[in-house]
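Final report, closing paragraph on structural work. Over the funding period we assembled a curated collection of sequence-structure pairs, and we close with a single example.
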Amino acid sequence: MLTQPATDVRPRPVPGTLPGLPGGERVILAPLCGITSAPFRRICLEHGAEMAVTEMVSSEAMTRGNRALCRALEGLDMSAGTQAVQIFGGDAERMGETAAILSEEFAPRYLDMNFGCPVKKIVKGGGGSAVLRDLHILSAICKRVVARSRVPVSAKMRAGWDKPTGSLVRDIARTIEDAGVSMLAVHARTRKQGFAGAANWELIAEAKDAVTIPVVGNGDVHGAEEAVAIRAATGCDAVMIGRGAIGNPWVFAEVRARLDGGVYAPPTPRERARTLLRHAREAVRIDGEPYGIIGMRRVMAAYVKHLPGARELRGVLMQATTLAELDALMAGYLRDAAVA
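Its predicted structure, as stored:
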């Protein structure tokens, strides 16, 4: 159990509540490469997410004239709801230039910096969690992005590179705050952990204790129970849900119902099916066939996970390459399974 020093006179967190960010956002969709595309963000925002963060945009690609490689910008529509645009890279000047371009073009709620991605290709290029190995580079990037961005700047960090300690998390968080960043999200795992093991929420509490800017808790929040628990354990200002939202955009409505004292009604099988098909149609609108369908197979599998006969349904859905095939398969399933 976490304890506070006797000299700490801050208000204690009240289980079941979240104070929210300055804009009122309490429950946020985390960025997930290859998952949180424009259609997925739109659907999550419609189902209760109070902010969504885009997939990462490469500062190298943006500043070298390779914008076509920045898939996170495809279909980006700020009218869909409150969104933050996330960028990554290890060069302060390129990060700053990218911030200037994207903040002016899209005017997002935040221009977000990724200091957490553990993927080898990203790390090898000096981006993502690799930046956490050098606080001087971290500070330089943050200061340059803050100076060039036309909107508030936020950052998402991991709890270090390999050996998580409270003192290291505090140092990283303070470095980010001192550079002028307005909000910090903490994924409570190190780069070395990847997504293995349990997230150490105590490290989020360390970051919250170290800074005065709002802190968002991230890691192992899959529903209302964890959202309440992470707040009680860390005092975080909001929660960020990533993998728990894959195929389950209703998780945001569930969390908000708990926080607001309301009643949550889980989706019916038909609602899940309708949302899956809508998601697929929007993916095809952006990527065409068959890539729009193939690209969301992991999400389709998650949508049907809790449906009757999910294993058999998942097997046939993974063979579909067109919307017509997908429509026919789902129509046949709903008819034969006689689900509500």
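The beta strands are 27-29, 51-58, 83-88, 110-115, 153-158, 183-187, 215-218, 238-241. The radius of gyration is 20 Å. We thank the funder for supporting this effort.
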